[in-house]
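Minutes, project check-in
Item: structure for the 168-residue chain
Input as provided by the requester:
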Amino acid sequence: MRGNPALRILAVVVGFVLLGIILARLTGASTGTGDPAGSSRPAPPGQPSAQAGSVPEKLRLETRFAPAPLDFSLRYLGRTLLEGHGPGQVFAADWTASLPPEGADLVISATWPPAEGQSPAAAQVTVTYPDGTVAAKTFWLSDESGPANGRQLHDVLTISVNPRAPSS
């Protein structure tokens, strides 16, 4: 083979540099010129995201019971939003939350005394949005529900970011 080895090495190095530049542009490495079309990268941890539902909303939570439970709790992602213990039947609180676009699951747990001739128990969870829209669900517990030492309810209410959005 003829040719200068130094020129061959130089050609290989130039080839790798060009390949590196092309790959850097294809994978979106920053060149400091900015992105005029906007970036699709997620916000860094701890920074608010620009997705729908990322703006905190002040929601009103209300629970009603008939008859009054021994105790209850309303939770979101393991955090207690509302809880109470006997004899009250209506409990309410304000909750400021940034709901994810797919909605949020509120978990209700309640315990009533043993049935012994009582009528079925009911729990209603109501969420009122800032614009006045209401999301509500009623949960029923029959006399046969739960152990003999008390009837228990564990259920979920899923709320959405925009409950007035048209369904498809």
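Outcome recorded: Residues 133 and 163 are 7 Å apart (CA to CA).
No further action items on this chain.
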